[in-house]
Amino acid sequence: MSHRRSALISGAGIAGPALAYWLNEYGWQVTVVEAAPGIRPGGQTVDLRGAGRTVIERMGLMPAARAACVEQKGIAWVDASGRHRSEMPVDAFGGDGIVSEVEILRGDLASLLYSAADDHVEYLFGTRITALDDSGDEVTVTLSDGTVRTVDLVFGADGPHSAVRRSVFGPEEDVVHPVGGYTAWFTAPSTSMDTHGWYEMFQAPGGLVASIRPDTDPTRMKASLAFASEPLMYDRNDIDAQRSLIAERFAGTGWHAPQLAEAARTAEDFYLDALVQVRMDSWTSGRVALVGDAGYCPCPLTGMGTSLALVGAYVLAGELAAADGDHRRAFARYEQVLRPYVEQGQQMPGGGMKMFAPKSAFVIRVGQMLNRAITSRVLQPLARKMFFSHAENIELPDYSTAPEQQMSEQLRSAR
Ligand SMILES: Cc1cc2nc3c(=O)[nH]c(=O)nc-3n(C[C@H](O)[C@H](O)[C@H](O)COP(=O)(O)OP(=O)(O)OC[C@H]3O[C@@H](n4cnc5c(N)ncnc54)[C@H](O)[C@@H]3O)c2cc1C
Known about the structure:
Oligomer: single chain
Helix content: 25-40%
Strand order of the largest sheet: 5-4-13-14-15-12-16
Strand content: 15-25%
CATH architecture of the domain at 6-70 and 108-176 and 278-350 and 397-414: 3-Layer(bba) Sandwich
Number of helices: 14
Low-confidence stretches: none
CATH superfamily of the domain at 6-70 and 108-176 and 278-350 and 397-414: FAD/NAD(P)-binding domain
Number of strands: 18
Bound molecules: flavin-adenine dinucleotide
CATH topology of the domain at 6-70 and 108-176 and 278-350 and 397-414: FAD/NAD(P)-binding domain
């Protein structure tokens, strides 16, 4: 290798730090730019299941992930008085149900991935790409701090509204498909709310869904307020307007919803976004590739966002190592190896938005009956096959003997 290969990654959520870790393992020089001032703390728990969990194991992070795990008994659908109308315990579907066996706060997972390689990877927080020029031989990138970098490859790991994707692949409207609703995630004080370890969900007619689940800190809850809606015009930078939007939608709703809407007004980690899927024919162009939600956001309702991001980062870096840095060959393999997994991961759970946020009391009752039926001993095996096995549907290649891996081991022992 004549020079150390270099990469610039936009976004330090889940996919960005995971990709940075693997590229660094293979001897690349990596810089990550993140628009936020630090690793973003927000979000509820995310699942570590199937191949996503295997990637975490191969990174050697499983003991830390298990230590940061949030204990949950399962998911329960409640009525306005808080009574459980149906339950899906965590051990249903072999630990791969809606609440999986290993659940970790999204912010904790992002911090873990960041700490796995932050000594060797350059992280620039509060920074974004403002211009990108792919000459065919290298990519020149201008950053918001005014500096200019020239690197071999650029990766967009900047979420469903990826700026890298917009600048290289075209307008957001062509590839971002609304699923029919919005969701806000935030932390709320647990005052007078005790779920006794359950992830509790309350559905109200009109397509309103409120939920709370345990935090690692018992004085707090992870909350979500979601609603069915046609696409809305709103300013994604105006957080106060988004807080008001949530408060208006949930005014007069039952259960803990008004209390949660009030907490949403001040929560520091408040985050609202449309429920969307990103579907693209290709995730690579020239010397630029997309990874995670930027290229194939499956929509949070699938529970597959984290697995796709982790597996995507692992395969992308692994194929670059296997191709000894030949990005054309590696990008083609990345698309080939990952696409079937992404297509399965993007399959929406039965009934999609209509069953997640039903419009009528009748459909809410039908949903509760269905939940009871599929968790029954007779139907569990069939339901597991139909709804909860996507995370396993990939044979993860082993890149440990790739040429770049061997090269980087020599490099490390020489350090
Ligand atoms: C605050 C937050 C809370 C979330 N909560 C949940 C949840 O509770 N449940 C769930 O299922 N999913 C949640 N998600 C989505 C989930 O993290 C992803 O679906 C999945 O983990 C894939 O991760 P990703 O790294 O591709 O995208 P993301 O996790 O969205 O990370 C993208 C990163 O890119 C950064 N970024 C965006 N634009 C730019 C730019 N122009 N330049 C530089 N950086 C940029 C963002 O600040 C973010 O850190 C949340 C995402 C965020 C950002």
